[in-house]
Amino acid sequence: MIKTRRSRWTALALLACTAPASALLNPQALVWPEKPLPGQANAEHSTPAQPVRTNDDLAALGARNRLELSVEEAVAMAVEHNPSLSAQRLQPLIAGTFAAVERAVFDPSVFARIETSREVAQRVSEDIQQNFDVRNDGEAARAGIRQTLPTGTELELSLEQDLSESNRSPRQASTRVGLTLTQALLSGFGMSSNLVALRQARADTLASAYELRGFIISLVADVETTYWDYLGARRRIEILENALDVAERQSDEARLRIEAGTVARVEQAAFAAEAARRRQDLIDGRAEAARLRIRLLQLISAPDTLHYERAIEPSTEVVTDATPLDLPADYTALAEQRRPELNQARLDIARNELEVVATRNGLLPRLDLFVTLGQTGFARNYGGAYENLDGGDTYDLSGALEFEYPLGNRAGRALEQRAKASVRQARASLDNLERVIEAEVRYALIEAERASAQIEASAATVRLQRETLEAEQARFDVGRSTGLLVAQAQRDLLAAELDRIDSFIAYRQALIDLHVADGSLLTRRLLDAPGELPPTLPWRD
């Protein structure tokens, strides 16, 4: 199992989504360790704990010209304020509405109709061969409830009332209660085919949750990576400033020695050139730090009171120790369960399988059974007709079968072939994606191991380069070396110190990339988001 060190980070922002179609919760203050996954043991080494700050503390920070920001607080602000995430978190809500629309197909509905009519006509009497007027007045009302069931059944229960009055016949009212059943016997029969659209919509909702999780992972990784880049740039500026001070001091000392006649005049050029080079490096370093500061401010998207001109002071300490990493198979097993892309690809397969079910059912002929049953009461008014509903033998019963089949059914066969091909394509894509992700995990693990080894190696390089510089300076003081060699040793020490900082930053970023590759970044950061585990699809069980 993976034995990743718990880093006792302080976190303010947690992000949570209810069901697949919910938005993120507001960040809350809590301690943010690097969460161990099931079976992980606590590591011996840990990073220094950061002070816990509340949302009010963050707001107070934003009100000052200088923003002291830890990596946890940077993630907190990004989770709460990043506009791209605010837009993306609405996608599961939107996708959930499509599932609700498909579910509404099986909701019962009520209906009602009221009608009145009058007819005036002339008829010819066969007895006297004269025309006479006929006037008919009628009223009708119909109400009921109907529902479509996933079994392919349509039910309708209705109540009808009619009243007719004519100058040639007595007034008559009727009340009828009827039940109509329509059942698909071939095409459209069964829950498996009739629930396809609803299940596909629910799969799309789950897919949008995995898409949201992938977006959050990318955002958190981007924020953390940028933060470490900015912290490294600040540390490099400090090293370059110290190097510039040393180079200028050496140049001044060389000038004094030249004036005293103990050193040749040509020796000052090497020290002056080294100081000029350090000024160039410092200009580039400050520009890079300014660029990264703007990028970090853009990602955290702090409130309007915090503009791009605000300074950022990183408060997270650079960790100089590294923990042992686990076997590639352990990280690959995590990726199999937690990579959003894999889980989304599995949903694509399930969705295409549902399409096969629908198209296979579409190959069948259409054969529907219709059954209608009714009971009617008659009287001279509505009340009497209603009372006579349960008396007498006035009922109606009818049944019918309707058959339809397109000759050749070319469209149905083409749709089935397309659906089956889509399933095979989705499975092949999943297999390829699994191989690609396994390679990504192994690449990230190799980089993490390299960065871990570089921490110790760079420490040795700095120590040896410092000894080399001290020795070269000592030889220069007794006239056995030149300013050029001292400047070269100084430059080598500077490069080693910069590499040392780069190794720290590279290790932290390599761990981020590794945890992105195995899909565990949000879990380790205690950030709650939908789509942590593979989808559960009841219709496939």
| Average residue pLDDT | 81
Shape estimate: elongated
Order of helices and strands: EEHEHHHEEEEHHHEHHEHEHHH
**Biggest sheet: strands side by side, in what order?**
4-5-6-7-9-10
Short description:
With 541 residues, this protein is of the alpha+beta class. It has helices at 55-62, 71-81, 83-88, 91-103, 191-194, 196-260, 267-300, 328-338, 340-362, 382-387, 410-477, 483-517, 521-524; strands spanning 8-11, 30-33, 66-69, 109-124, 131-148, 153-166, 172-184, 311-314, 366-379, 395-404.
Structural description of this entry:
The chain is an alpha+beta fold and 541 residues long. The protein is 53% helix and 19% strand. The protein contains 13 helices and 10 strands. It has helices spanning 55-62, 71-81, 83-88, 91-103, 191-194, 196-260, 267-300, 328-338, 340-362, 382-387, 410-477, 483-517, 521-524; strands at residues 8-11, 30-33, 66-69, 109-124, 131-148, 153-166, 172-184, 311-314, 366-379, 395-404. The strands form 3 sheets. The chain has a 6-stranded antiparallel sheet with strand order 4-5-6-7-9-10. The chain has a two-stranded antiparallel ribbon with strand order 1-2. It has a two-stranded parallel ribbon with strand order 3-8. β4 (109-124) and β5 (131-148) form a beta hairpin. The longest helix has 68 residues, at 410-477. The protein starts with 7 loop residues before the first strand and ends in a 17-residue tail after the last helix.
Summary tags:
single chain; 541 residues; alpha+beta; six-stranded antiparallel sheet; two-stranded antiparallel sheet; 13 helices; 10 strands
